[in-house]
Each structure stands twice: as C-alpha cells, then as structure tokens.
Amino acid sequence: MKDNDRQTLSESFIINNYLKKLNFNKKESFNFENDGAYLSISENKKIVVSNDTIVEGVDFFTNDDADSIANKIICYNLSDISSMGAMPYCFNLSLGLPKKISKKWLRSFSSKILKLQKKYKFFLLGGDIAQTKHIVISATFFGRIASGRIIRRDGAKINDDIWVTGNLGNSFAGLMFKKNIIKTNDSIKKFFIKKYLYPDPCMIGDKLRLIATSAIDISDGFYGDLNKLLQPNNLGANIDVKSIPILPKLKNLILSHKFKINKLLSAGDDYEILFTSDPKKKYLINALSKKNKIKITKIGTIINKKGIYADGKILSLNKKSFQYNF
Amino acid sequence: MKDNDRQTLSESFIINNYLKKLNFNKKESFNFENDGAYLSISENKKIVVSNDTIVEGVDFFTNDDADSIANKIICYNLSDISSMGAMPYCFNLSLGLPKKISKKWLRSFSSKILKLQKKYKFFLLGGDIAQTKHIVISATFFGRIASGRIIRRDGAKINDDIWVTGNLGNSFAGLMFKKNIIKTNDSIKKFFIKKYLYPDPCMIGDKLRLIATSAIDISDGFYGDLNKLLQPNNLGANIDVKSIPILPKLKNLILSHKFKINKLLSAGDDYEILFTSDPKKKYLINALSKKNKIKITKIGTIINKKGIYADGKILSLNKKSFQYNF
To answer: A46 has which bridge partners?
Structure first.
C-alpha cells in the first residue's frame, strides 16, 4: 500500500475515487463527466458553469507575456461554455499571484481581459486575490443558454456525422517551436507560436445547440477528446484522416517530417469544437458555416464498434489525451 | 515609475486600478466591495456567489492535516454565504495539487468535505484539478436566498446596534500557539489550536436576512471588518470593549499578558458574523439567539462620526485588517 501510494494518482483516479461521492448524484454535475456543469434555476432556465485553472510552468511558461496568460484563462473557459451550447454571461476570477508581479504585468493582463470581455460580451462578477509562489489563475464562468437544452457529451448516436470547427494542430506546433524541439524559418515559427500563445475560442456552440447530438471542445488533443464523446455509450468512430482540417503550411511541415500527424492529433489545445449530429443535419451545418464564416468540416462517422479507426486502422489509445499524473 | 513599480500593490490597489473596470458597473458585482456577488435570475430570484482561495504557507502550514485544509476552504466560503443572508446550495472546487499529495491526503480531504456537505446540505457541482508546486485550493460557492433581499455591506444606519455572533479571538490565539509565539499549558494550547485549524462558520445569516441592515463575516480581524461596514456611508462606531464576547480562558490569557486585546481584535479568522440592525430589532435578535442556541452579543452602536471608538478612545487604523501586499 505504501509503495503504491503514489502510483496511480491521475486526474481521473482522483475524481473517481475521492470526488465523485461529493456530487450526491445531482444531475447538474453531469457526474463530473463533463468539463462543465449547470445550475438549475427552473425547468427551462439553466446557468452553465465551467471552471478552468492555469498554472505557471504547466499551462504557460514563466516568462510568457501577461496578455497571453489572460488570453488562455479566458479562452479555455469560453471554449467550455461554447461546447455546451451556451454564451458567456460573466465570470469569477481567482488570482494567485507571486511577489514578482508588477504594475505593467497587471495592466497588460487586465487590458487583454477587457478586450475579450468587449468582444465576447461578458463581465467580471467577483473573485479573490491570494499570494502564491508561482502564478495560479482559476476562473469560474457562467453561461446563458437560450432554453433548457444543454449540449451534452453523451448524446452521440450510431451513424451520426462527426464534425470539427477550424483547423487542428496549430497550437501544438506552436508549442514545439516555442520549446525549440522543431526548427524552421522565422515567419512560420512566429505564426504557430502565436497560435499557441493567443488561442481563439470557437464560439459557434450556441448555434449548434439544436443541431449537435454531442459536443466537446478540443483541449486535450483531438483523439482523446473524441474518445470522451464515444465512451459514455461504448461507441466507436471511423475517421477519414485526410479530411481532418490542417492548414497547408502545417501539412508542409508534416510532409517534411517535422511532425507526425498522430502526434499532432493526440495532443494540443486546439480550442475548436468537435461535435456529432444526425446526417440529415448536414445542409444545416454547411449553411451555418457559410453564414458565420467558420470552417466546419465533416471528418468521420460514429460506428457501433468500440475504438477509433483512422483510415480503417484502429488507433492505440495510449497517451490519447493529456492528463496530469500526481 | 520603475522604482515605484512594486511599492503599492496591495489587494485593494490591484482591485481598484486593474480589476474594477472589468465589472462593467453591473450591480451584481457590488462593485467588488463585498466578498460575494450574485447572479440575477429574475426580479426575485438571485443566486449568491462567493469565491475563496487558500494557499499552502499562507492560509495553512505545509504539514497541516488535509482535513484541516478541507475545513478551511469550506468554512471560509460558507461564512461569506451566510453573511449575505443565504444558505449554501453547491460549489465548484479547483484543486491545485503538488506531486507530494498521497491517497491518504485525498481520502482525509474528501472525507472532511463530505462530512461538512452532509452537515450544511450542499453538493459538489464541478471543478478542475491542476498540478502546482504547492497546494492552492479555490472554491466558488453558490447560495440560495429565500427572496430577492441579500444582506449588503453598505446598509448600516446611524444609531443601529452593532452585534457579533459567537466568541472572538480564539483562532488568532490558536495561530500564536501554533507558531510557538505564545506558550502555556498543553490543554489550553490544544483547545485554541483546534479553533485555528478547524474553524466553524456561523450559519445564522439567512435568519438575519430581514433583520440586519448590514453584515460581514469576520475573516480579516474584527476591527478591520467592522471598518468595512462603516466606510461605504462614512459612518463610525462606538464599541464597548468589555462587551466583546471573549471566552473566559482567553480573558485569563489577556490578563496574564499573553495577548493584547487590540491585537486579538485586529487580526484573525473568527468566522463569526458581525452585523448591524435597528435598535427596535433587539428583542427579535435575542429570541433568534435563544432559539438557535447561538450566542449573539450587542457590542456597540453606529455613530455619525467617522472612526472606530473603543471605550471612547479612537482606534488607530493602521494594520486594521489583513491584506496581502504584492
């Protein structure tokens, strides 16, 4: 017991063994199988709640600019709110700040948040400030939802189409360039690092509310997050890898062996929305894409057989998704 | 500018200069002059929101037991919810955990939370887990309120009575014993250290909702928190120091010069409720105290003259309340 005491403390182990008993089986908590939850006000009035924490040295580098850190804590949460089919309303901010924080840092951090608040229309409700040894920022977001229906993670059906917004892999490529693991010319490098430092949430979620059968934002890698849509109903997916939206300049880097495509699709904070829907909704989705000028690509189909099949070949699900191990 | 860059970064400086612009003047935020806020659902339906973060090495010692840490994060938030006149409904938990965390720690931490959830009737809605270098725990609590009226901080009127629940100073005395700054016999020491490690929130708030004109929980010291009730309307307070509820065993320590009373009343996490009310409500409050078996003591009066007067002598307001300086 003692020797084993530290071996299996993954996030999901902690949630399943120590935290699940605390939700008293309330349906609002989605049994902790979702990044978000909701407050049930009345039959048709719900407030979506999401929570994300970012930590210096884990989610960003020690010397990253304050506006990038601000961008990340807001994007991570907006993306969760969107994937549930909601629009942001307000948020609570818990700032854990070390002594090194300067006025310049605070100015830059708060200006970026203000900019995003104006863009996505939400306000700061409250929060607190604590002194920490390194930067730890936690935000709890509240989202409005037009009627009672929240997009869930467990609604995918056999034969549903699988769709993804935007382009994948950019942020992970940026991280590899930032870490100097991969090298290339400066303009390419700069382009991808910006994608890593300043992620954009895809706020199409509330328009998918009556279309998607399930949805998730891609925050821990495409394959891992897809798996989270499949697991609740023991389903599988056929993925047409060539159809996965990847920018031509990233495709070039894959072709020149800078990246392995499965690595790109198994890690990284894309903050795009991955969702499933009835094949009959295809025209609706294409119209939505056109109207909102958001790329939405069909990349596969839900199947009645466990596992993710990429071009017919089953994927090994090791390291399929980022998780902390404690 | 550069030399000054680090001088004045108190919590209130950060809030006033960088964060206030982010609340878009929404009344739900109380302009950040309250520990809590609320979500406005409809004219008569509000959800109270509070947020507190505790940090290893600041709010608790590195080797403090997990159940004490759990007790603190829950108590700090319940106390805020109570002071606004609400009852807890559910909460979001953000766990920043270092690698040293063991199964034993998690078992003890979650068991204590479960115990408090059963006692005070609330559930865990959601949250997240992140890897940090030291323990940083943030909780966002949601409270129910019977009708639209939340007890505010800025409602005190001239001639209002000033009341406090329970006994003051125990937790601060416990901290001094824990730090070995003060020494005495073991049973006395143990008693007060327990008060510091396992604070009890005073959940009388929802019963004061229609009685109190203003309220706050004492989390940064009695005098400092009293000052927060006075400042919004430029009021003052006459305090009868002898009437302040202090346990006989703590009074003995004061008499034997272990503690200065003003020190006791200027620091410390009492988690009692300090509130004001119309003198006509005196009998109601005494009846409430009797019925609920909660000590509630009248300790002074609101006056039309700025400052806190303890037995007629104005208090110096230096170090009146705990605040981080960054």
So the answer is: A40
Reported as a single tens digit per residue, the pLDDT across B162-214 is: 999 999 999 999 999 999 998 888 899 999 999 999 999 999 999 999 999 99
φ, ψ at B46 (rounded to 5°): -130, 150
Give the helix ranges, DSSP H, for chain B. Answer: 11-14, 66-83, 103-120, 170-178, 186-197, 205-208, 222-230, 248-255, 261-266, 282-292
Q: Is A127 on the interface with B (CB under 8 A)?
A: yes
**Are B51 and A128 within 8 A, CB to CB?**
yes
pLDDT (average), residues B222-235: 94
Pair A138, A174 in one domain: no
Least confident of A198-207, A234-243, B70-79, B174-183: B174-183
Tokens of B244: 């302040």
User: How do residues B247-268 score in pLDDT, each as one tens digit?
Assistant: 999 999 999 888 888 888 988 7
Q: Do A248 and A169 sit in the same domain of this protein?
A: yes
Q: Which helix (H) or strand (E) holds B163?
A: strand B161-165
The 3 state secondary structure assigned to B77-96 is HHHHHHHCCCEEEEEEEEEE
Q: A167 and A136 in one domain? A: no
Q: How far apart are CA B273 and CA B293, in angstroms?
A: 15
Position B11 in a domain: no
pLDDT over 60 at A1, yes or no: no
Instruction: Answer whether A140 sits within 8 Å of B107, measured CB to CB.
Output: no
Q: Is residue A86 part of a domain?
A: yes
B257 in helix, strand or coil? coil
* pTM across the whole model: 0.89
**Cβ <8 Å between B51 and A124:** no
